[in-house]
Amino acid sequence: MQYTQKPTILQILPALNTGGVERGAVDLAIALKDQGFRPVIASSGGTYVQTLLKHQIPHYSLPLQKKSPLAIWRNSQALAKIISKLDISILHARSRAPAWAGYFAAKATKIPFVTTFHGTYGLKGGSLKKLYNSVMVRGQVIIAISHHIAQHIRQHYSLFVSANQKIQVIYRSVDVKAFSPESVSPQNRKDKRERWDVSKDSKVILIPGRLSRWKGQLTVLKAASKVHTAECVFVFVGDDQGRKEYTQEILQNIQDLNLENKVRLVGNEPDMPTAYAAADLVIHASLEPEAFGRVIIEAQAMKKPVIASQLGAPCEIIEPQVTGWLVPPGDSDALARQIDTVFSQPKTSLSIAQKGYEKCITTYSLDRLVKETVGIYTSLI
């Protein structure tokens, strides 16, 4: 097929509410349009739809979050119609239920099918669960968001990956224009700290992430009770997404550890660049391997020192004592010691934050992700 203009790329995912997968899809669509492509997204809708409309990027509302065989079949029929109507050149799936619908639609319309493997997805449930997950390795090209994920694919899904398929690692990205120290005014930083009820002399330790046990909030609280640095305030950003019992456990731990004056639970934060700017240190305390760790590169883009758990993809992002610090997951003593070290050695910490920033803007920029993804698209077309 000969193209007189750059091709149309359809991305599919369950919804367009806040999240790394969603943000990544929208950022890529905007960047593709800037380069002359014709991006389209299909999902069940969400807050980011307005962003797409602002950039005049079409969005098709389909119940792609539904997982039943009937819903998947209906979605595949609807996607096939969109593919034909818009002359879609490539279908790019980012989640399992939409990917099954997209897989069948791409086969029916004979267009290339690409997947991005965003997480480990879990293997509880045996062979049936693995079969369901396997759609994410049925793309002609499988994009792994880290070497950790690429190894996971090779370890658990080798039976589903054929010799003519390619696994390509493309790290997630951060918009270094939005996440930039220069993007936040001193007044906005001051206002944010005041809203958090933090004094100007306090050290703010930011812990971004939804309130979920595996994200390690309880480890951070135990560490907070052991930190010797004076006037530290631990600010937890993110909501519980319905995990009310876990929130109550967090509140109980705050009370039991006498941390009422040192901890803030601020819920969702729509302006993360300002939140990072208002912080002095960022912690990523996951207890299970992260597929990537977007929080880390966002903080690095804002020139903030970062401490992360030593497992999963964060070990690829952080070079210990060079671009950040790694501590054993769940080890509150080690975390407390590292927090104290960061604040007791300000010149060293500033230098490490600067090196983290320099690596971030070269390795994890949106321009790099777009270039590598476009390379895949053009190779398939």
Topology (elements, then pairings):
Layout: E1 8-12, H1 20-34, E2 38-43, H2 49-54, E3 59-61, H3 69-86, E4 88-93, H4 96-109, E5 113-117, H5 126-133, E6 141-144, H6 147-156, E7 166-169, H7 186-195, E8 203-208, H8 217-224, E9 232-237, H9 244-256, E10 263-267, H10 272-277, E11 281-284, H11 294-301, E12 306-309, H12 314-317, E13 325-327, H13 332-344, H14 346-363, H15 366-380
Parallel strand pairs: 1-2, 1-4, 2-3, 4-5, 5-6, 6-7, 8-9, 8-11, 9-10, 11-12, 12-13
Helix pairs in contact: 1-15, 3-4, 8-13, 11-14
Written description of the protein model:
This protein is an alpha/beta fold and 381 residues long. The chain folds into two domains: 8-173 and 365-380, Glycogen Phosphorylase B (Rossmann fold, 3-Layer(aba) Sandwich), CATH 3.40.50; 181-363, Glycogen Phosphorylase B (Rossmann fold, 3-Layer(aba) Sandwich), CATH 3.40.50.2000. It is 44% helix and 16% strand. The chain has a seven-stranded parallel β-sheet, with helices on both faces. Helix 12 (314-317) links the parallel strand 12 and strand 13. The longest helix has 18 residues, at 69-86. The model has no long low-confidence stretch (mean pLDDT 93).
Structure, briefly:
With 381 residues, the chain is an alpha/beta fold. It is 44% helix and 16% strand. It folds into two domains: 8-173 and 365-380, Rossmann fold (3-Layer(aba) Sandwich); 181-363, Rossmann fold, CATH 3.40.50.2000.
Q: Might you state the CATH topology name of the largest domain?
A: Rossmann fold
Give the CA-CA distance, first to last residue: 8 Å
Percentage of residues in helical conformation:
40-55%
How many structural units, i.e. domains? Answer: 2
Low-confidence spans:
none
Bin the strand percentage. Answer: 15-25%
Count of helix runs: 15
CATH architecture of the largest domain: 3-Layer(aba) Sandwich
Largest sheet: 7 strands, parallel
Encode the helix/strand succession as letters: EHEHEHEHEHEHEHEHEHEHEHEHEHHH
Strand order of the largest sheet: 3-2-1-4-5-6-7
Number of strands: 13
Mean pLDDT across the residues is: 93
SS-based structural class?
Answer: alpha/beta
Instruction: Assign the CATH class of the largest domain.
Output: Alpha Beta
